[in-house]
Design brief:
Layout (H helix, E strand, L loop, with lengths): L1 E4 L6 E4 L5 E5 L2 H7 L4 E7 L3 E4 L2 E6 L7 E6 L5 E6 L6 E5 L13 E3 L23 H4 L2 H11 L1
Parallel strand pairs: 3-10
Antiparallel strand pairs: 1-2, 2-5, 3-4, 4-9, 6-7, 7-8, 8-9
Length: 152
Amino acid sequence: MFKGRCGCGAVTYHMKTAPMFVHCCHCCECQRQTGAAYVLNAIIEADRVEFEGPITEHELPTPSGKGQIITRCRDCGVAVFSSYMVRLGKLRYVRVGTLNDPDQCPPDVQIFTSSKQTWVPLSEDIPIFDEFYKFDEVWPKEALDRLEAALA
């Protein structure tokens, strides 16, 4: 089981299954929102994530104009997961760094590397994309099937 929590421990969660796919995103918005050089997001069906504790939700714009909701611990403010407005209630993007064992969710791809910090090295073992990618060219069939079912 994949368990995690916020910084103070008031919000805890678990993912009932492994995520469908994990992004290492280097876009400028992720850098701004996290205060870091990139973010790791484990993409999973919303109904496969159970959480407890006091949360707040913050709507933020995205470059696409579709927006996203960031779910944070009400007490410490740590972002635990996010959801894009276009898929609200269907998918969660769990912040891998909040997992008790982040090594359980290594990145499947590195995206938006055209805006990465110049001092960040990229692993040649993980597919690299200057911007985004085509789902059917990158995601395994099982993950694509799960995604299609979640978005139906």
